[in-house]
Structures are given as structure tokens and as C-alpha cells.
Amino acid sequence: MSRQAGISQNAVMHMAIFRVFPLQIVGILEINKKGFGRGVTDVVLSQGVLAVSHSNKSVKLYSLEHIVQRCLTEELTLGQQSPLLGHRTVGDVPFGIPVNIQITEPPPLLFEAFSHNGIQIGGFPWHCIYTPPHKKHRGTHYICSLKDSTLAKNGIQNMNCCSLESDVIFFHPAGSGRVIHIGPNTINVLKIISELNSPLPSEVLEDYSLTTHRSNLRPRVTVTSSGRAVRSRFQQLDDDPTQETFRLLEYEDELDLLAIAVTNGEGEEGRAHVQLHDNQTGRLQRKIDLDEPWDETYPHELFFDRDTIVHIEQKGSQFCCHVYKLRTITK
User: Fold this and answer.
1) Which member of 86, 189, 221, 248 lies 3.0 to 4.6 Å from 302 by CB, making a disulfide possible if both were Cys?
2) Residues 145, 193: contact at Cβ < 8 Å?
3) What highest taxon heads this organism's lineage (predicted)?
4) 3-class state of residue 64 by DSSP
């Protein structure tokens, strides 16, 4: 059966590719050792770019359009017969869809980088964000041009934060080409300045920055009642539960607002609130206190859709869902 479907022995995995509206099958792409080498651990397809991750921390990008043009052996139509299945019907049980995109040699490489946690692609022109795999680069993020791998000016972003949870960086979900960099007490919204077909490298500039309110930190050196100086061996963490800390960020596209969950470290139980910020300027628009306590030892999720905020927390094997409806404030 696998031989009839065109599945080879050196295949690592297979990927089904469809077009939607209307639903049409492009084909089954075989990820094999001949085309992509050994050590393939993961494959992701996004916006026409095939990203292949390897066990040596390398991520290689290929053009799906180029692969389909060169390696498509036969066009398939769901519900019609195909010679690749011995003239059986494509999509019928148990024959399914045959492999019709077969790679026999490595396709042209668009981009390669060695990264600790994969590569993100966005911006205009295309840029990528990645973190080198070496330990000394943990928490350091590189923003490069996807065209020629040139590092952008100010393209190395590092918050130098000391925290249990690592900082997070990603392209803005609004598709504006901006970058959001979230740390325990700072959120930087960055913009990439670049001219199309310009020989000059692009530049990363700060659009605006948000910070938490921090009370006086414990001094590294304290003096006891007897006059003895005691020096603390450990620095207070940036995400210390007694300090106001950014936890989650969600974007609402219709209102063009950022919803940010912030824990305030007040009282014995952890408390939290949600801040709504204007996406363009970062100006605070509204603050919503959450009724339920925020236990930082459990996972949390935040969703924001128009006038509804949903907070989901997991406590062991149980999930709690808290729904808030926003009301208009009349002055």
C-alpha cells in the first residue's frame, strides 16, 4: 500500500498541502533524507516558506512554490482517479492521497540560521528573529534581513533581565511589521525601518516602551541593629512576586488595543489586573482589576475580543474560566 502511494523508505515525514476557498489538494510533500539531509526534527509551512529544523539547531528555509514547480509529478483532484493510486479515487479509504511532490535532490536554500528556539519571519521587507543556540546568547535576539542575512542596525535585542521566566520577542500580530519584546518589567514595541532595494541595512528603532511600577527594591547590603553589615548573595529577581510584573499580552485587532495582564504582588494572595493600551501610542486607556487571585505557579491564558476578556487558569487537572464584560464609562 505504501509503495502504491509513492512512499519511499528514506522518508522522514509527510506534509499534506491544500488550497482553501474552495478546498483543493496541492499534494503530499515527502520530507526525505535525499532532499533535506539527516537529523530533521520538525517542518513548518508558513506564507509559502518551508522551514525545516534539524537536530544540530539549524533551521533552513525553502520556497514551497519552487519545490512544487520542480517536483510535482502529477496534479491531483479529490474524488477523481489517479495513476499514482493505480487509477483508484483520490481521497477514498483506504488509499487516501498519494505522494505527488517527490524531492530527489536538495532544493535551493533561501536562508539558514542556527537558533535556540526556531526562527520567526515578518516585517516588510522580510526580516527574521532568532536566538543563537549557544548558552552565552540565551536571552539575546537577532533581527536580520531575510534577503541577505544582514544584521539590522540595533538588531541585537537583549533586556538583560534576571528572572525565572525568559523574555519573549515576536512580530506584532497586527501585521504592521513591528516587533514586541516582553520582559518582566518592560515591554518594548519596536519598528523596523528599511527601504526596499536599498544597499543600506535596515534599522530597529523603539516605537514606544511600557514599564511597570516598582517599589523600592531590597538593598544588596543591609545593616543589622548591632551595626553589622550583611550583604545579600542573590539579587532580587525581575519577576519577583512582590513586584508588579508583566505576565501576558493579547492584541485586539478591531479595537486596536493591547491587553496586558499585570500581577501587582499585593497581599498574601497574588492579585492581577488587565491594562488596555492604545496599540499605536502605548497610552493607557483603561485598567480592569481581576476578582480572582493569580497563582503564579499555575499556567494562565488571556483572551480579548471586543468587549469581552477571558482569563483561563489551570490548577492541577482543573481549569477555571473567568469572563469579564466591559462597560462604557459615562462621565
Assistant:
1) 248
2) no
3) Eukaryota
4) helix
Per-domain residue ranges of the chain: 1-114, 115-223+230-235, 244-325
pLDDT digits (tens, 9 = 90+) for 206-258: 999 999 987 655 555 555 556 666 555 556 665 566 788 899 999 999 999 99
Alpha-carbon dihedral sign for residues 26, 32, 37, 39: positive
Question: What's phi and psi for 34, nearest 5 deg?
Answer: -65, -40
Cell of 302: 488571556
> Would you say 15 and 42 are in contact if contact means Cβ atoms under 8 Å apart?
no
Cβ contact 320:295 at 8 Å: no
Is 32 in contact with 99 (CB distance < 8 Å)?
no
Q: Give CA–CA dist 255/290, Å, rounded.
A: 21
C-alpha to C-alpha distance for 260 and 309, rounded to whole angstroms: 11
The three cell numbers of residue 35 are 532532499
- Name the nearest CA neighbour of 311 among 271, 256, 284: 271
CA nearest neighbour of 111 among 65, 50, 61: 61
The sheet with strand 308-315 has its strands ordered as 300-305, 308-315, 318-325
Q: Is the pLDDT of residue 265 over 80?
A: no
Cell numbers 510533500 correspond to: 29
Contact 277, 291 (CB under 8 A): no
Cβ atoms of residues 72 and 125 within 8 Å: no
Q: Indicate whether this model's pTM tops 0.85.
A: no
Q: Residues, the chain, total?
A: 331
pLDDT at 216: 59
| Interatomic CA distance for residues 64 and 46, integer angstroms | 9
Check: CB of residue 194 under 8 Å from CB of residue 253: no
CA-CA-CA-CA torsion sign (115, 120, 122, 126) = positive
**Distance of alpha carbon 36 from alpha carbon 50, whole angstroms:** 11
Bridge partner residues of 59 (DSSP): 53, 113
268: cell is 498574601
